[in-house]
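Researcher: Quick sanity check before group meeting.
Model: Go ahead. Protein one:
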Amino acid sequence: MEPARPADRTVDLSVLKALTHPLRIQLLNALSQFGPQTASALAARLGESSGSTSYHLRQLARHELVREVEGRGSARERWWERPPGALNLYSSELAQDPGARDVAAIVNREFSHSRAALLEDYMERAPQVLPEEWLEASLISTINARLTAAQLAELSTQLMHYARELFEKYRPEGDASPDAKAVQIHLNTFPIIQGQFPEPRKERTS
């Protein structure tokens, strides 16, 4: 029997409000992209103090957006992870509340900025930074179509279902391969450059 797919979670207004701090979204993204980390490791990755990352991780944990990794770490250095499953930031109930819509817009804007920054970094630096095999494995693609709302809903559902089925084949049961890199998939598929690939050496001029 195949393992059950992690359930998606539709957030409420209190969770949305907890996500309005930009650093909390950065922490969620870093845990999603690079796996379990300590507050100190996240601080180094994000250019923050460990006191700040520790505080905001605890706030995220209050809303079950992150959790401690069982059996890992110590009393002084805890490991944190993102629970499996997608976060749905909109619901019909929240959509009827103008205040909730405004909060959701703030949170979605921050997530969108983060995604756009990773893609922009890839588009600008990939040819100079990435080995050839990573360039050839990546895909930046746009498909244009004219659809009804019902057709778009069907297409979106099928694409997400198929993408998750494919992804399960690559989800590691234990530690990931040492050759694995964090990858973002939008229908653009590309490796995250920052923090994973060394910058090319600059040639010296005499």
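Researcher: Fine. The other one?
Model: Protein two, sequence then structure:
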Amino acid sequence: MMGHELNLIQKTTLILVCKKPTLCQGKQRLAADIGTEEALTVAQHLLACALEDLSEWPGQKVIAPSHESDCEWASQLLEDEHALIVPQGSGNLGARLNHIDNELRRQGKESLIYIGSDSPTLSFRHLSDAAQRLKTYDTVFSKASDGGVTIMANRTHWPDLSNLPWSTESLEASLAKLCRQSCLSVGYALSGQDVDHSEDLLGVFPELNSDNRPARRALAKHIRTVFKQGDTPHA
């Protein structure tokens, strides 16, 4: 990586928006497919993958837990004393993202990249691509195969995100439309995949199975266990 690219990334804040994995909370669509206990285990593996991304980021790191009561838990997830903990606040996901964004900009942060804990095929390449594109665009997204997004990035305040169709196949299109209506330019980073259903686990398996990062290898191993199909699970 060239010096100016590293400098740009070091000035970009990476935010992990996450929930504390808990039985019967979160990943309900996945739980309907594979059961609540298996869904909890998958959620724990997915969080470990996201933390892997956060750990290797050379810029400022932020963990945004869903509840203020989870701040102590969040503070123990990374071995980085400089990582910030910013609870999400209340409301739907859009309102919570606005809250996080406003708080970080109040602290002087400018270029921000948001990820969740359901996109295990993300890599440093995806994140650095988003950071680079923020030089040109006000907002940058990574499209997910289901019509959502795996990365949201911005260099200025988000518009009001609370009325968007979160968790639907029209999210990305609606998000881009809202930004353009708010006079914000829109760019796209490398696309990715997220995990909401059992078939999504099957979809990400080939890439995870060839990924040498420990959390990805552990998730691939667990997917084999869930589907009991050896090295190459099939639906």
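Researcher: One line on it for the slide.
Model: Strands lie at 12-18, 61-65, 84-85, 111-115, 139-143, 149-154, 186-188.
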